[in-house]
Amino acid sequence: MKLFETHAHLDLPDFDADRENLINKCFSSGVEYIINIAFNKETAISSLELAIKHQHIFATVGYHPHDAQDFDAEIIKKHAREKKVVAIGEIGLDFFRNLSPYPVQRDVFANQAHLAVEYAFRWWFTIVKRIRSATISSNKRA
Asked: Does residue 138 have a pLDDT over 60?
Protein backbone atom coordinates (compact mmCIF):
# COMPACT_ATOMS: atom_id res chain seq x y z
CA MET A 1 0.00 0.00 0.00
CA LYS A 2 1.29 3.46 -0.92
CA LEU A 3 0.85 6.26 1.60
CA PHE A 4 0.37 9.78 0.29
CA GLU A 5 0.09 12.73 2.73
CA THR A 6 -2.28 15.11 0.98
CA HIS A 7 -2.37 18.03 3.44
CA ALA A 8 0.76 19.13 5.26
CA HIS A 9 2.14 22.49 6.38
CA LEU A 10 5.77 21.47 6.87
CA ASP A 11 7.06 24.89 5.82
CA LEU A 12 5.62 26.63 8.89
CA PRO A 13 8.01 28.07 11.50
CA ASP A 14 6.74 25.50 14.04
CA PHE A 15 8.92 22.95 12.23
CA ASP A 16 12.06 25.06 11.78
CA ALA A 17 13.99 23.25 14.51
CA ASP A 18 13.43 19.71 13.21
CA ARG A 19 11.83 19.97 9.74
CA GLU A 20 14.35 17.72 7.96
CA ASN A 21 14.16 15.12 10.71
CA LEU A 22 10.35 15.11 10.53
CA ILE A 23 10.40 14.79 6.73
CA ASN A 24 12.88 11.91 6.96
CA LYS A 25 10.66 10.20 9.57
CA CYS A 26 7.66 10.52 7.25
CA PHE A 27 9.49 8.91 4.35
CA SER A 28 11.15 6.21 6.47
CA SER A 29 7.74 5.34 7.96
CA GLY A 30 6.26 4.56 4.55
CA VAL A 31 4.92 7.89 3.32
CA GLU A 32 5.92 8.08 -0.35
CA TYR A 33 4.69 11.56 -1.27
CA ILE A 34 3.63 14.72 0.54
CA ILE A 35 1.62 17.70 -0.70
CA ASN A 36 2.55 20.80 1.25
CA ILE A 37 -0.38 23.21 1.28
CA ALA A 38 -0.03 26.97 0.88
CA PHE A 39 -2.57 29.43 2.26
CA ASN A 40 -1.14 32.89 1.52
CA LYS A 41 1.66 34.64 -0.36
CA GLU A 42 4.40 33.68 2.12
CA THR A 43 3.47 30.00 2.27
CA ALA A 44 3.10 29.83 -1.52
CA ILE A 45 6.78 30.72 -1.71
CA SER A 46 7.98 28.59 1.21
CA SER A 47 5.90 25.58 0.16
CA LEU A 48 7.36 25.68 -3.34
CA GLU A 49 10.90 26.07 -1.95
CA LEU A 50 10.35 22.98 0.22
CA ALA A 51 9.00 21.02 -2.76
CA ILE A 52 11.94 21.97 -4.93
CA LYS A 53 14.32 20.80 -2.20
CA HIS A 54 12.64 17.38 -1.80
CA GLN A 55 11.92 15.09 -4.72
CA HIS A 56 8.78 13.54 -3.19
CA ILE A 57 7.20 16.71 -1.82
CA PHE A 58 4.84 18.76 -3.97
CA ALA A 59 3.29 22.17 -3.34
CA THR A 60 0.09 24.11 -3.80
CA VAL A 61 -0.43 27.85 -4.23
CA GLY A 62 -3.49 29.70 -2.98
CA TYR A 63 -5.19 31.91 -0.44
CA HIS A 64 -7.11 30.48 2.51
CA PRO A 65 -10.46 32.18 3.23
CA HIS A 66 -8.91 33.79 6.32
CA ASP A 67 -6.35 35.50 4.04
CA ALA A 68 -8.79 36.38 1.25
CA GLN A 69 -8.36 40.13 1.79
CA ASP A 70 -4.68 39.77 0.82
CA PHE A 71 -5.44 37.86 -2.40
CA ASP A 72 -3.01 38.46 -5.26
CA ALA A 73 -3.83 36.57 -8.46
CA GLU A 74 -0.35 37.32 -9.81
CA ILE A 75 1.22 35.15 -7.10
CA ILE A 76 -0.93 32.22 -8.19
CA LYS A 77 -0.25 32.85 -11.88
CA LYS A 78 3.48 33.09 -11.20
CA HIS A 79 3.74 29.80 -9.29
CA ALA A 80 0.96 27.63 -10.78
CA ARG A 81 3.06 26.68 -13.81
CA GLU A 82 5.92 25.34 -11.68
CA LYS A 83 6.39 21.60 -12.14
CA LYS A 84 6.23 20.95 -8.40
CA VAL A 85 2.90 22.79 -7.95
CA VAL A 86 0.01 20.33 -8.20
CA ALA A 87 -3.00 22.38 -7.12
CA ILE A 88 -4.45 25.72 -6.21
CA GLY A 89 -5.30 25.76 -2.55
CA GLU A 90 -6.07 25.97 0.20
CA ILE A 91 -9.08 27.89 -1.10
CA GLY A 92 -12.73 28.08 -0.14
CA LEU A 93 -15.10 29.62 2.37
CA ASP A 94 -14.87 29.77 6.15
CA PHE A 95 -17.84 31.43 7.83
CA PHE A 96 -17.02 29.89 11.21
CA ARG A 97 -14.39 32.49 12.10
CA ASN A 98 -15.21 35.10 9.44
CA LEU A 99 -11.71 36.59 9.41
CA SER A 100 -12.43 37.94 5.92
CA PRO A 101 -15.86 39.32 4.96
CA TYR A 102 -18.22 36.95 3.14
CA PRO A 103 -18.24 38.90 -0.17
CA VAL A 104 -14.43 38.94 -0.25
CA GLN A 105 -14.21 35.21 0.52
CA ARG A 106 -16.80 34.43 -2.15
CA ASP A 107 -15.09 36.53 -4.83
CA VAL A 108 -11.61 35.23 -4.04
CA PHE A 109 -12.83 31.61 -3.98
CA ALA A 110 -14.48 32.07 -7.40
CA ASN A 111 -11.39 33.79 -8.79
CA GLN A 112 -9.11 30.99 -7.60
CA ALA A 113 -11.46 28.30 -8.92
CA HIS A 114 -11.36 29.99 -12.33
CA LEU A 115 -7.56 30.14 -12.15
CA ALA A 116 -7.52 26.41 -11.39
CA VAL A 117 -9.50 25.76 -14.57
CA GLU A 118 -7.15 28.03 -16.51
CA TYR A 119 -4.10 26.18 -15.20
CA ALA A 120 -5.60 22.71 -15.61
CA PHE A 121 -3.41 22.09 -18.64
CA ARG A 122 -2.05 19.13 -16.68
CA TRP A 123 -4.77 16.48 -16.34
CA TRP A 124 -4.13 16.03 -12.63
CA PHE A 125 -4.07 19.73 -11.62
CA THR A 126 -6.77 20.36 -9.02
CA ILE A 127 -7.87 22.49 -6.07
CA VAL A 128 -7.62 21.97 -2.32
CA LYS A 129 -10.97 23.17 -1.01
CA ARG A 130 -11.53 24.42 2.55
CA ILE A 131 -15.17 24.72 3.62
CA ARG A 132 -16.31 25.41 7.17
CA SER A 133 -19.85 26.51 8.10
CA ALA A 134 -20.41 27.35 4.42
CA THR A 135 -21.30 24.13 2.58
CA ILE A 136 -24.36 25.40 0.69
CA SER A 137 -22.59 28.59 -0.42
CA SER A 138 -19.54 26.69 -1.66
CA ASN A 139 -21.57 24.54 -4.03
CA LYS A 140 -23.21 27.42 -5.91
CA ARG A 141 -21.84 28.22 -9.34
CA ALA A 142 -19.52 31.19 -9.49
From this structure: no
